[in-house]
Design a protein that fits this description.
By secondary structure, this protein is an alpha+beta fold. It folds into two domains: 32 residues; 133 residues, Rieske [2Fe-2S] iron-sulphur domain (Rieske Iron-sulfur Protein), CATH 2.102.10.10. 25% of the residues lie in helices and 23% in strands. It has three helices and nine strands, in the order ααβββαββββββ. The chain is elongated and about 120 Å long. The chain starts with 15 loop residues before the first helix and ends with a strand.
Length: 188
């Protein structure tokens, strides 16, 4: 006699492979979301905050209000920057100096941008002990060489910011800057 098999189904069950695939996909998706929840804050924490970015950002300055013979003090990255609109007399004096006689020999032409020799941009920090020399604002002593004078220890800088007398070992530093137009500069 032939055997007959009866199968009773109480509801349709999905094939086993489909359930396993779903669980793998769900587990993978949960892992990706969890990894993202950890990585995004970590990467955000490594980036500098807005205040830090602003402190190191370049600054633009319009030279138009700086009259010939005047100078201004700016602050960039927490440091004083001197910007002076030099007179023809100051430029001629700076270029007449025998560069070989200087403690830190540097020609005036190397300290200014070609075509804009009347504007001098310097770090406003004495190279001896970091004091702020006078000579930028009207009425401040400019020292013996028509430039800057550091009253703390007696360093004298000429109209090109080169050390001429006193204990300072080096010329006033030159910050990175460029002219964006004939009367505008970007420092940084």
């Amino acid at each position: 006699m032939a055997q007959t098999t009866h199968t009773t189904t109480h509801g349709a069950t999905p094939p086993e492979g489909t359930r396993r695939d779903f669980l793998m996909l769900a587990t993978g998706a949960a892992g990706v979301v969890g990894l993202g929840a950890v990585v995004v804050p970590l990467v955000s924490q490594l980036a500098p905050d807005a205040q830090t970015v602003a402190a190191g950002a370049p600054i633009d300055f319009d030279l138009t209000p700086v009259a010939e013979g005047q100078g201004v003090k700016l602050v960039w990255r927490g440091q004083i920057i001197f910007v002076r609109h030099r007179t023809k007399k100051e430029i001629d004096e700076a270029r007449a100096v025998n560069v070989a006689s200087l403690r830190d020999p540097q020609a005036d032409q190397a300290r200014v941008k070609q075509g804009h020799e009347q504007y001098l941009v310097l770090y406003g920090k004495c190279t001896h002990l970091g004091c702020i020399p006078s000579g930028t604002a009207a009425g401040e002593p400019k020292g013996e060489f028509d430039g800057w004078y550091c009253p703390c220890h007696g360093s004298h800088y000429d109209s090109s910011g080169r050390i001429r007398k006193g204990p300072a070992p080096l010329n006033l530093g030159l910050p990175p800057y460029a002219f964006t137009s004939d009367t505008k500069i970007r420092i940084g």
